[in-house]
């Protein structure tokens, strides 16, 4: 067990070998010699302290446990205390469905069919989750553009690590940073900067549109590795007269210009943001 006079402090960088030596100094009866290189999770039960084992759990396991605890806190404590919702099991199912649909258009009717509840209940639960900072919505830009979607928002999570699919997770990450930029502009009294997305009835879509003073300013598309610019960028830029077209690529070996579209790697793009 841990010595009472020793206070554990988390190492600055998670490294398995360093961490084993770190916890070894705070344990009694821990393996010596060659056994000191054995992962703590494989030590005999009599020589394993649960708190030390927790420190040495693989990062992916710690992450899953943290997500589980966060969802439990939101559903079984925050929602219960702040609302009169009684069907908490349905809210838990809703959270699972929303995580799977992050980056997509929010359809209350589709969620209602999955949960077999009234559509007003789904709207109410989604609003509560939004107030508890589980999710946020980005609404389409309509302006004067014909045949555009005007009502259906897209859903994103504040904690994008919950999203399993890589493309959707990367898009969610970019949405969060762009929204943070918009909030920064608002908090500092700068010209209004707002975040939207573009989609028309022919299913042409651009991930993000930044408007400056409520006028289209930057069209931005996100990709994992595809450098070829999306045709929708030029299509919408021509109709909206947006001066900037950017494609942000996570794994971009050769950034540069592709026609009139700026192709940039995600790391450098995020580095240029003011926040």
Number of domains: 3
Strand content: 15-25%
Q: What's the CATH class label of the largest domain?
A: Alpha Beta
Compute the number of helices.
Answer: 9
Intertermini distance? 44 Å
> What name does CATH use for the topology of the largest domain?
Trna Endonuclease, Chain: A, domain 1
Mean pLDDT, nearest integer?
A: 79
**Rg over C-alpha atoms, rounded to the nearest angstrom:** 24 Å
Largest sheet: 6 strands, mixed
CATH architecture of the largest domain: 3-Layer(aba) Sandwich
Pattern of helices and strands: HHHHHHEEHEEEHEEEH
Task: Please list the strands of the largest sheet in the order they lie side by side.
Answer: 3-4-5-6-8-7
Structural class: alpha/beta
Taken from the alpha-carbon principal axes, the silhouette is globular
Spans where pLDDT lies below 50 across 5 or more residues: 1-20, 22-37
The oligomeric state of the chains shown is single chain
According to DSSP, the number of beta strands is: 8
Q: Specify the helix fraction band.
A: 40-55%
In brief, what are we looking at here?
The chain is α/β, with parallel strands linked by helices.
Topology:
Blueprint: H1 16-24, H2 50-56, H3 59-82, H4 88-100, H5 108-115, H6 119-131, E1 135-138, E2 154-157, H7 166-187, E3 193-199, E4 205-212, E5 215-223, H8 231-240, E6 244-249, E7 256-258, E8 261-265, H9 266-272
Parallel strand pairs: 5-6, 6-8
Antiparallel strand pairs: 1-2, 3-4, 4-5, 7-8
Helix pairs in contact: 3-4, 5-6
């Amino acid at each position: 067990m841990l010595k009472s006079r020793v206070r554990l402090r988390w190492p600055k960088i998670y490294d398995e070998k360093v961490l084993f030596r770190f916890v070894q100094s705070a344990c009694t009866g821990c393996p010596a010699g060659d056994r000191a290189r054995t992962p703590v999770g494989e030590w005999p039960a009599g020589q394993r302290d649960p708190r030390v084992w927790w420190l040495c759990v693989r990062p992916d396991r710690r992450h899953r446990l943290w997500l589980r605890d966060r969802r439990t806190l939101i559903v079984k404590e925050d929602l219960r205390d702040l609302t009169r919702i009684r069907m908490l099991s349905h809210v838990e199912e809703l959270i699972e469905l929303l995580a799977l649909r992050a980056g997509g258009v929010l359809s209350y009717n589709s969620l209602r069919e999955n949960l077999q509840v009234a559509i007003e209940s789904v709207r109410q639960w989604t609003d509560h989750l939004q107030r508890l900072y589980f999710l946020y919505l980005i609404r389409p830009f309509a302006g004067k553009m014909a045949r555009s979607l005007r009502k259906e928002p897209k859903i994103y999570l504040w904690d994008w690590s919950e999203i399993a699919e890589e493309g959707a997770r990367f898009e969610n990450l970019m949405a969060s940073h762009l929204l943070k930029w918009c909030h920064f502009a608002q908090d500092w009294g700068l010209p209004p900067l707002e975040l939207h997305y573009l989609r028309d009835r022919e299913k042409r879509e651009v991930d993000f549109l930044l408007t400056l003073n409520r006028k289209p300013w930057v069209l931005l598309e996100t990709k994992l590795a595809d450098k070829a610019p999306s045709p929708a960028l030029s299509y919408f830029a021509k109709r909206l007269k947006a001066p900037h077209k950017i494609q942000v690529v996570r794994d971009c070996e050769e950034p540069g210009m592709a026609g009139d579209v700026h192709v940039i790697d995600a790391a450098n793009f995020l580095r240029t943001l003011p926040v």
